[in-house]
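Narrative summary of target 7.
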Amino acid sequence: MPERPDSMSDLETLRARLRFVLVRTSHPGNIGGAARAIRTMGFTRLHLVDPARFPDPEAYALAASADAVLDQAVVSPQLTDALTGSQLVLGLSARRRDVHLPELTPEQAATKAWQAAAAGQEVSLIFGNERTGLENDELARCHAMVMIPSVEDYSSLNLAQAVQVMAYELRKAGLAEAPAVPTPTDEEPPADAALMERFYQHLAQTLDDIEFHKGRAPETIMLRLRRLFQRARPDARELRILHGVLADAQRMAQLAGKAGNA
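Modeled conformation, tokenized:
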């Protein structure tokens, strides 16, 4: 039977596996507000992807003494870099997009995040730009979409407020029964986001090499294949096998091309 962490240090270990990722943030004040929001709930890991302005005095002014969170914030140029090491990625979105993902409430997402952390996995919760939210290609990197149930005629939640809601649900679940430590198994953990992204790049290139699309939209095909493999959540060993299959397909396509030109 699963066992709950038996000390606050165990809970701290699990918290350290959760990161909040802000993508293309326009206003530094929202970065400060987000830092304050997660710090009040016991979290400290903040990752920033291509922020318009950071570091910035406005961020520190609105962080309300959560300066350490900002000082330790990791700034990355690309979302893939910020997700490196993450085996579960949850994207916050105010509205449904063309990317069809499982939809979770904040409560369900918090439980899922703690369960993954308890299994030794790194978890990323990603929040999009204040005006546009997460784009389709950013949501395509997620395993599920989290929707805060705001009213339909005014769903414009401030970025820092959205972070606060999610941080609160995570803390509430963490203090309840969500972070149960499962019985150890021999199963490999899912591959992290960086390994998955390299696989998707190889897959896209292979489909081009074997002339798979033939008039079909490559973007649509890749979105569907991303969804397929995000559901499957292959481990690193399985990805190596898939890379081998793709490499052989590329080799055969190259040989066929040479034969055709002979």
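The chain has a mean pLDDT of 90.
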